Amino acid sequence: MISRYRYILSSIAVVIVFVFFFIKALLPLANSVGVRFFETVNEMKVLHQVGENHVVTDSLLEEYRVTLKQMDAFLGTNKSASDILKLLLDLSQQHQLVLLDLSTQEPESKTHSTEYPVVFQALGEFPKIHRFLTDVENSDLCIKVSTIRMEREDSGRAKASVELSVFVREPLP
């Protein structure tokens, strides 16, 4: 009688061992599938939230367009080297400075703009030189100041050697 149950018990034990190894092999696979499923669900939630916020993106694009228009307004289309030199001379007279060696170098043309390198030395009191450079930077020209070297003269006045570039937009053909 025991031998009759022995085959049944051994068959059940083999099935239990087989199921145990099968589950042990499938458990990591099921775990990785579950992790990927929850990652996908979270990505879908984020994409859904981004879809709801499209108005914010549109307003940012509009702000970007306005900023670009403002930047274009800084780049004058009718400025020449003589206009730039005239502006610098006028500002130096307003601030009671003496400009020495004022010159523009060969302009460098880029895609839709021209860069006019300007080199000069300004002689005067330090606060006046500072106000002059601030007014130049705040003028209606798009300016990049490359170098400012300051020295004190024997007379007590300051001497500033300045290298800057003025960017001018060329009219499109």
CATH superfamily of the largest domain: Ribosomal protein S6/Translation elongation factor EF1B
Quickly give the CATH architecture of the largest domain: 2-Layer Sandwich
CATH class of the largest domain: Alpha Beta
The number of helical segments is: 4
Tell me the β content. Answer: 25-35%
- Stated plainly, the CATH topology of the largest domain is called Alpha-Beta Plaits
Order of helices and strands: HHHEEEHEE
Average of the residue pLDDT scores: 77
Uncertain spans: none
Helicity, as a percent range: 55-70%
**Overall structural domain count:** 2
Radius of gyration: 38 Å
Biggest beta-sheet profile: 5 strands, antiparallel
Q: What can you tell me about this protein's structure?
A:
- With 173 residues, this protein is α+β, with helices and mostly antiparallel strands.
- It folds into 2 domains: 72 residues; 89 residues, Alpha-Beta Plaits.
- The longest helix has 51 residues.
- The model has no long low-confidence stretch (mean pLDDT 77).
